[in-house]
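Issue 218. Parser rejects a valid record. Input:
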Amino acid sequence: MHSNNDSIDTVLEKNSNSKSWKRFFSKRNIIILILALTIPFGVGYLWQTTQGESATTTETKTYTVEKGNLSTTISSDGNVVAEDGVTVSFSTTGVNITEVYVKQGENVKAGDKLAKIDTTDMEFDLKSAQNSLTSAYANYNSKVAGATDTEIQISQKSVDNAQANLEKVRSDNTTNIKQAQIKLDNLNKDLASIQTGDSTSDSNIEAIENSYTSAILKAGSISLDVKSALKVAEDILDDDNSFYYSLGATDLTTFHQAENSYSSLVTQYQNYITTYGSLESVSDTDKVMEKVSAMLDISQSMEKMLKLLYATLENTVASTNLTESAIASYQSSVSSQQAKMKSAEESITSAKQNINSTLLSKNDKKTSLEESIEDAEISLADTKKKAASSEQSAVNSLEVAQLNYLKLTEPTSNVDLATLRAQINSAKISLDKVEYKIEQATLTAPINGEIVELDGQVGDRIIQDNNETFCTILNKDTFFVKVSIEEAEINQIVKGQKVIVTFDAIPDIEVEGEANFISLTSSMDNSGIVTYPVKILLKDWSDVPIKEGMTAYVDFVVGEANDVLIVPTAAVAKNGDKNIVVMENGESREVVTGFTDGTNVAIASGLVEGDIIAANASAVTSTSNTESSKAATGSAAGATLKGAFTEEEITKLKAMSEDERKAFLESKGIDVTEMGKMGGNTSGGRPPG
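Output the parser choked on:
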């Protein structure tokens, strides 16, 4: 089984493990295997015989690129058996049975509904898969159409805003650091004044008045920042902006929390303006403290609301109505307002502390000043640290905005388009899986027959995947194929898996089936190989003359890709870390490979249907062997394969010693000595080269 990410080297290596080799070791070819084991010294001879032919000049062949289907399979062989019943079970676990349509003893026809399980979660998954596919198509169409003038203008505005924000952050940081330093310097001066006894009552009064005045000014400045932040939130949450009705917010809980928080803030801010907006003097100190505390509450509430708003934007899906550039611009604006509110909260807190500190007595003030100086030193260091962090964040936002602008304005590459098409295909596959899962939620009868055992009822919970029987249907005319799968491959087989079956006795006929039963118990043969019995239910075989006991060859489909560009794996070569093909005119072209079945490989980009390429990208011309070497080995080859062996003779050959085997072969007219000389290899190993 090959994944879409297999390198071309891996593809070429896995090509040697193709289905044809597995078929070579099937029962109908066991005579060849016995000959290879019984006459090892003849292998070298046959090798020499074929060397002259394999070294002939290889002509460069071409291949026309076309669309088709690829699949990878697990192959096995078994026999057709006639059984009198099938067990039917659900393929999904952790859900309850909601409907049962049949009764025990009732006759049903293939396709009749038997039961249904709860599909509530599946319906949610279906909507999610549909939205993902819609989004993938929208992204692809948007890239193909290119950015609109409006989108480019929005992106440019995001760059300008990010640049302006960076400059403002740097200015604010400079101011904040300067204020923190001034505060520390003033505290040190006040402490020195108290220690030298220079502090007077008048100076204390003046300091108190100054602290109240400063607090009023800070509250007024922060009020403007709050008003600006409310405007940003209004632009995002306003219904006229169609944010809610686009693909938009996927986390509606956070979105509504942001809306409610915004509404509460508007009311809180309006009450603040009504109550304290005109207070600009320190005549009523209690009123000043109320105003400062009210502004602190508003800034803290605003910080929480902005956090919810940013979380909403993070959980927003871009669409034609709400582009990635617009979302990025909103995020940048919200981040900028968050930084302002954080700074405002610290500033107003500092103002309150400053008022309180000026009201202390001289002795208490000395102790308080010492503590305040320590806090101010920590605050100064923290302010510098936050300044560096906020500036770096602003720089990052600017770089992201610039990068988004470049992506928006530069033409989309073929590789990007191929990636977007792959995303569409992936979304389609996910949608198909959910739809298939919903389809399988209704259990149907695989055959005509009678319900002889009914083990499920409404309300039962499906617990054991693929092994919990719902009912047993009896029909003596039903055919199965039984095979044994080795333990290394059994985990790739699942109940309901698509199977293609062919028959030795019916050439050129394929019958579709599905894996109906996978045993939980294993068996071990004399060679120590562990296998698990698997039963395949045949479908639509009424027109095929299948008989009990026929040898059947089974391909379990474990991966497939449909309607893709296909080329032979040999047509793709490695050039460093790139995959290339050779065009008809000799030009090398880079390609992106995808799914492979080992023989052919899908091309995701680099070629179009109808292109003509070299069928073997690394074809070389070798020197031909002489006709005389062909003649020298030809007659002996005929002697080596002279005669045929019966089953009884094959059994005897396997039990013979080497001398007994040689004597037996010579009795059949095969010159063992001559074969050993011609072959040059009697040890059973492969000839060199």
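Fixed in the parser; the record now loads. Confidence is low (pLDDT under 50) at residues 1-8, 11-58, 620-644, 674-689.
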